Amino acid sequence: MSPTPFVALLMFLMFVTAALFAMFGQGGGAVYTPLQVLFGIDFHVAAATSLFLIMIGALAALPVYHRARLIDWPLALTLEAAAMTGSFGGGLVSGRFPPQTLSLIFALLIGVVAVVTLADFRLETCARVPAFATRFCWQRRHGDQRYRVNLLLGLPLGAVAGFASGLLGIGGGLFLVPLMVLVLNVPIQIAIGSSALMVGLTAAAGFTGHLLAGHWDWRASLLFTVAVFTGARLGAHLTTRLDKHRVQTIFGWFLLALAVLMSIRVAVAA
Predict the structure, then answer these.
(1) Nearest in space to 199 (alpha carbons), one of 106, 19, 107, 61
(2) 160-171 pLDDT, tens digit each
(3) For the chain, what is the domain count?
(4) pTM (two decimals)
(5) Structural domain for 130, as ranges
């Protein structure tokens, strides 16, 4: 079997994935990892490569979101401190889980995130809190937007999101954007822009764990770099021209379809 057509197809799919996910402030690991697995790459190697590509995509998209003033830097860096800690741990222990188990966990988590995204419910976590907890509600003002962030929930949930991203090689954006929008009441545009910063940093921590565990194939990573960088830059430019709520709905259905496909693959492999 000649690998050339398959490599070209995989590079094209990486480009499309990078463009699509950059529009949502996502890293793209939800597709990078299963794509590589479907093309016969070991799950642990695919997860490490995925995290590397997420870093590349973040470097491409970040300047675009910064110029559009869509990044809440203090909030993003605060949540990221918790997420990076969890991501490093997830990447470091990922080798202890068999690929089939990780694939099943991946499908289940993506399915949950898809349902939550489509439901678009929001928790007013700072509306009714005990007196002692009000000190953890951070008043934020970004441009003409005002919102309150409950750090008592945000920090531990950020750590959980980071652990899942490092374990599964998905960069964290799939969990961080819903966390910011649905639980922490951050406006979706700012959540998307801030997530672009956070997923890159989270991916770097998770990638370090995989690197120490010996999972990285640098040749595959460099091969896909150009496709991912170009796609992410295009997607970041497109995001300011689209209706965010319609995109969120499409994205939710896309994730649900991905979860179903991954579940089918796990069932067939079993």
Answers:
(1) 61
(2) 888 887 787 676
(3) 1
(4) 0.77
(5) 4-269
